[in-house]
Amino acid sequence: MSDVHVTGLADHHPAVRAAYERVVRRDPDQPEFRQAVLEVLETLSPVLVQHPEYVEAGILERLCEPERQIVFRVPWRDDRGRVHVNRGFRVEFNGALGPYKGGLRFHPSVDLGVVKFLGFEQIFKNALTGMSIGGGKGGSDFDPKGRSDAEVERFCQSFMTELFRHLGEHTDVPAGDIGVGGREIGYLFGQYRRLANRWEAGVLTGKGLEWGGSRVRTEATGYGAVLFAQRMLERRGRSLEGVRVVVSGSGNVALYAAEKAQQLGAVVVACSDSGGYVLDEKGLDLDLLKQIKEVERGRVADYPARRGGAARYVAGGSVWEVPCTVALPCATQNELDAEDARALVRNEVAAVAEGANMPTTPEAVRVLREAGVLFAPGKAANAGGVATSVLEMRQNARRESWSFEYTEAELARIMADVHDRCEEAAERHGAPGDYVLGANAAGFERVADAMLAQGLV
Ligand SMILES: NC(=O)c1ccc[n+]([C@@H]2O[C@H](COP(=O)([O-])OP(=O)(O)OC[C@H]3O[C@@H](n4cnc5c(N)ncnc54)[C@H](O)[C@@H]3O)[C@@H](O)[C@H]2O)c1
């Protein structure tokens, strides 16, 4: 992949080529990180032409190198008394706009390159919200699947025993991501509180409602992605009313993307997990799906038997085979490839909005864009989660607890602003309707200006 892309950068600004070549040379074993960097850099040439001061100040080189990377051992015992050793990570990527902010992912695929890709994306996403937060990300190669509550608790306590010294409401504020939901945030917060001997609510977001959490945080990423898609469509005189929607994944982002799409009148006909997908032409029964996934921690394969009717499960199939007008990839990185994109185009998809981080491969993005499909990159479309985390921090700082309606209205306002910032930047740089360029340029300019103002640090 990298050879094609280094060659493909021939027409770009020399600073773009130099920065990318440096990343390839220094981090040859981090393909996801390289992919995320390339996806941003290849849109920035017009910005650098307008702002030679960014090049002069080495902004690209500095942006591609995390401010701090923490890698640590996480020892824990399973229920049978056996010792396990996992690896923990926290990458504090860029703090120019505020305390590092970004989730923790617990999944066997997590390594330093994956955490760096997510942290890099997070810098621009957080900048796009217009709020005061820097970019960071963390996690572990621990696999919570099949582990008991007690095992997850012991793992989280061990993880936080090292991480706590690097965190703080003014320093670094993690949240959830794949494999880290309300249960894990609870165990992590408890251990932080014990070690720090402080009630510091703003140190973690995604907390329980009774102890500092915010309403709408659970729903925010999925709701936000749909609100973004809706605004893209509205700008072109269309809406979600009566439209067929397909969602991938069935975790936090997927479930609430499906919920908001239904609330706006769409028919959500399919969702998936790593084993396959379910198709329900009548529209997914979300109460049942939440019971299976959130309460029982089961698989989507269990859905058809309990739903009855014509719902069916397709083992191992790609959910993107299902015809739809709006596609919402909400599972994981690189889950929608060029072949999937061609299937979506054949079925006349109108818009793709990424609920997950980098779920669409670069080749698939090209296929969609060449076919004229509206495409919203994750760093814009899924920014509602982190934005609501900041709303949670605001409530913590003021010792307040806002209503669902008020918080959701704030989320809607923020998503409209994120959309409009992307739209405005794309137009300003001569590429109207290009949300990838718009998101990268708008996020980059905000961080770059802050870095310039703060000197060489
Ligand atoms: N939770 C948030 O607030 C948030 C915010 C921004 C972005 N994201 C991103 O959204 C994505 C999903 O995160 P989440 O919080 O919903 O995690 P989650 O653990 O709740 O859900 C992940 C889902 O993806 C499914 N999945 C994993 N690999 C798959 C594959 N190869 N094919 C199909 N399904 C697969 C899992 O079965 C699960 O249903 C990730 O990319 C994450 O980085 C999450």
Automatic annotation (TrEMBL):
Keyword terms: Oxidoreductase
Glutamate/phenylalanine/leucine/valine/L-tryptophan dehydrogenase C-terminal domain sequence ranges: 214-455
Highest rank taxon of the organism: Bacteria
SMART domains found in the cross-reference section: ELFV_dehydrog (SM00839)
GO MF annotations, alphabetized: glutamate dehydrogenase (NADP+) activity
Chain ranges passing through the membrane: none
Entry keyword annotation includes Oxidoreductase: yes
Assigned protein family: Belongs to the Glu/Leu/Phe/Val dehydrogenases family.
Annotated protein name in UniProt: Glutamate dehydrogenase
